[in-house]
Amino acid sequence: MLQQLVVKTFQSQVVNWQKEHGRHQLPWQQASNPYRVLVSELMLQQTQVSTVIPYFNRWMLSFPTVEALANATNDQVMAHWQGLGYYARARNLHKAAVYISELGAFPESLDDLLKVPGVGRYTAGAIMSFAYDAYGPIVDGNVRRLYARYFAISGVTNSSAVDKQLWALSEQLTPTENCKSFAQGLLDLGATICKPRQPLCEQCPLALTCQALLQNRVDELPTPKPKKIVPVKDGHFIWLAQDGQVFLQKRPAPGIWASLWSLPQVAADDALLKQATKHGEFVHQFTHYKLNATVWQLDQSHLVKLQQVEEQQPSSWYHKTQLADVGLPAPIRSFIEQQPEFSKPD
């Protein structure tokens, strides 16, 4: 257990720094409520603030309340999320909205928030802190790095043992007052001061008691993850287009790009490819593998066979004027828009 003086000093240093130097103008900080916090936190997972801001603003124009999101269609939700990646977040957000809407009110305790689909320990703590200004421990990538350095904790931070240690520290350090400023201060310090590379230790309010700084271990902490060899996979997609329209199929769930519309994908040994000609190719880097994609062109005579390839999946023709409202994976959209008949306005 941490000494009470250590806890109180840490809390006041973070809160005071945040009030003077932290971020206060982020869009989800304005007119903050549980729904806006939920949307922003799910968008911010694995994604930088600067990328999220325009997505968040557009989302709020279309789905200003949890009820509006609950009533939206899957296609509407995915169209607004396209380009952010990690599309399970969008599906979870939609499920959460339906759950909360049916509940009739937004949960107001950590335990009840953890029952919401897609809401984990961090997101629940963030909602408590930012929406209710109440006790809500948080541990995300920024906080992991900050705590690992401040307490000189060795070991990969998302390993089971270190993760347990970080959450225990967070539960002890999180205050019961000034909760919003404290949580925002942790995130701001991690994002702007205690950065992964070239941290600005001379500007850090915690510098005098930071164990990594005192031990000259800032550059080695947190312990880096072991590097993995990223596998390469081949993908085969079908191009079928006419009169400014392209044939698309909805991707199955679960799986990569689940619930998004895409050029139909077929196996490498599919008989259709024997009758196709190469139309183009693209490369896309996923988190866990690299996709080398080849796009094959078919003509209208193969449409029936193509629809039979994945007959359980919805398929449809989309005109280029409709594509802005369709949820498409970013590399698929980019490929389509590079085609001459889809890059020119009518």
From TrEMBL:
Enzyme class: hydrolase
Cofactor or coenzyme needed: [4Fe-4S] cluster
Keywords: 4Fe-4S, DNA damage, DNA repair, Glycosidase, Hydrolase, Iron, Iron-sulfur, Metal-binding
Signal peptide limits: none
Catalytically driven reaction(s): Hydrolyzes free adenine bases from 7,8-dihydro-8-oxoguanine:adenine mismatched double-stranded DNA, leaving an apurinic site
Enzyme Commission numbers on file: 3.2.2.31
SUPFAM superfamilies named among the record's database cross-references: DNA-glycosylase, Nudix
Residues covered by the HhH-GPD domain: 43-192
An annotated Gene Ontology molecular function: metal ion binding
Annotated function: Adenine glycosylase active on G-A mispairs. MutY also corrects error-prone DNA synthesis past GO lesions which are due to the oxidatively damaged form of guanine: 7,8-dihydro-8-oxoguanine (8-oxo-dGTP).
Protein name per the record: Adenine DNA glycosylase
